[in-house]
């Protein structure tokens, strides 16, 4: 292989060097002054493209080009990116090449004639390449295939590569300016189409990509005006005739499938028409008017495209119809707004103003008249496709069925208002019939499209909802053939059912709620009374699913009598159902979720029977043996035990008094202790159950609380004592790998202690409770668990799984420290935290403990108590030391590690105790050591690839600025001033230098995630507000002078002026954020293109210029 094809080959094989070579060649030029001394040349993409085209043509002439389709596709794709770069940017890159080479070849810069010659040679090479590509795309031989093999006759004949090359010509014309676009269309394409000298596939592809590129952010100023002026001739002379002819020829002879060249031409024509309509905001009404002067009825032509056997054609026509109807709908909204404005302004505006408003109203009013007629035509035309839908379904053509369903869904969505009002010309029955056929289609994709469309209409029509419900109930049954398959089909179906089908059921419930409840009740009763079969559990599960899907709406109804009646029927039926059916894991999961969703309604039933049966269902789930069901134990994102835990929690919380009997308490105790009797229950489920149990305990009298909490925690603490000894024995022998399961068990049990503390403190009850009584009941729990917790903290602190649970328990235990009376307890908590942090050997094991430190600061940082402030200081310094030590061990950058780990905690310090934060330092270190480290790290963490790290850094810096504003130096004594002033000066300098440069560069150059743009803009304004222009001018200028800023001098001037105005006067924060966001958006484009001088830039300058 020659060098160009070889480079493409390496890139196709994902070779990093090959990819890097192509990327660099597409992005810059290099100077070759050594090959021919005295005659230097530049080398860039246009040189590479010329070489590659020569090599491919040579290989083809030698008959060795059979495997070059991929190479040509890649070549065309990258060339399209480079063609987005306007000639002016090419010239700039060549000059940059000279500047970079001037250090070794100073004479080149001095020879202006040589420099200009090289620039001109590169421009000429670009034009030559465009001529070669035009010759390729307009060569009829490249649009034919080998009739015997059905393959392209050349690598250039590949449809994908050919369309990309057409895109290259379009990109080059658009990037060269409006005149070039007009020249290409009017002087080349239109005459070529009229004389039938140009291949229609190439013509419509170029026309398509002209409109696509013209809608880009970087298109030159004036492009959109040219596109608008060319629209009539493009539609009438190019797209319309080619579309009509390709549709006529595409399915000639009754071909029932497969793609041919006419299908491709028709699909591209439809895509092109859609793109030009979108670019000019032309809906069906205006498009029809454009074609009135021709012999083409464009609406009939679009309807005819629906009869194509090509998926690509039907998909494209669906997209076109959607766009046209969307734009018409937007026009209708404008018309309605003008009508309202006219009625409001009568008697207020002058006659001239009212006449202008009336004229605009008349123009848009034409849309109001024509739109219902056109929509009715589409409804009728698409409705006729119902027969073809059945035909294609019989032949197994899922693709065409999907496209037809999508088209029907689009039309129904836009016509639904006319259908509701009864103003549709004709009947929608054909359209609805097609959609119901689609709902019954076995493909979840076809079905899902139709269900989503009908869901929007169902709530307003009881008749439609009643008809749709049986279809959806049938679809809710998990297909039996998917259960044992592992090809991903079951996961796809579950996603469809949980998202699409559930919404459809909710829509049906809104339209016929009484019928819905009666239908589901009857189904559940029927399935519970039927003789057991292999399919019966799936049918019962589906009926329960339907009730779960509408629970959110059902429980919010004002009159719940009918709901309670039907719930009693359902739950009574479940109680009588054979255990072989209800013990199936799918039925258990759905029955428990059903109980969970309706738990707060069950106590409203006439008797407690339904509530008691529901409680038995949930509790019995903990005793079921599901091991024989294999993968059925966890379909979707749930399991029987997790659903049972959630159901039991809701029942316990909704009516805890009903569980106060000895029998009920005994059943709950057995469920709680089940994990200690070799029953595997995940810790998440046990935490959920703990929440419900605490709701029951809190309903007891306060004098019973201590014993009840002790009874709840006793098995947990006993387990901790046993497991901690096992862990010590295993790790004492050096078997750290085998200690993993033991450490997880330790962590889980500590999490349960945290759950007990949290839920007991937060559980709600109808009677008034003194929180001091809650704390008194929990303190013995901490005392009894403290020895083993201290032991675990000392021995296992290097394991993140353990420290995360200890940190959680300590954080929850802060709920017990409300006043200075509980300071001894706070001291114990802090002591254990310091032990764990000190023993930690990695930043990951320290990080979980910082949540506790943060909570201590939030809860007690504002208190004027030296003992508390010393605790906070000790915690921060211990954490700081631990992270520094772990950084050395891990080889990480200390300052960045501190920032990533501690910023959230230090934000709390800045808010609650700023003076303490600014002075924290280790013994023998300069005051403010910690904050110095943080300021040094901030510019780097702002550039992090982790969005969370960026957000935390921004919040810390914003909180630090607020803290500085809150400090009054006049209120401090001389000693405090001596410590604080140097620290504050350093912080201010950092904000106005490195941090400000990073903030402006990252936001205005479009580098950071979009979610952070508003926060960055706010922080920039906070930095600018108290500053003087001379303090920040250099930093702001430096940020805009980087190579990453692509918007040109006009935007730079306007942006810098706006920054200056933020300092000199109060500038609206929302407007400033809009400016930053607009610059960010303009940078989100191809890196080889250009933004400066484009339409978006001119709009930006006009919008934010001071003189606007």
From TrEMBL:
UniProt key word Metal-binding: no
- Name the source's superkingdom: Eukaryota
Q: Which GO terms describe its biological process?
A: protein import into nucleus
Keywords from UniProt, A to Z, are:
Nucleus, Transport
Family annotation (SUPFAM superfamilies): ARM repeat
Subcellular location, record wording: Nucleus
Q: Does the keyword Transport apply?
A: yes
Q: Which residues form the signal peptide?
A: none
Primary location group: nucleus
Q: Which stretches are transmembrane? A: none
| Classification via Gene3D superfamilies | Leucine-rich Repeat Variant
Q: Single GO cellular component annotation?
A: cytoplasm
Q: Which family does it belong to?
A: Belongs to the importin beta family.
Name this protein carries in UniProt = Importin-13
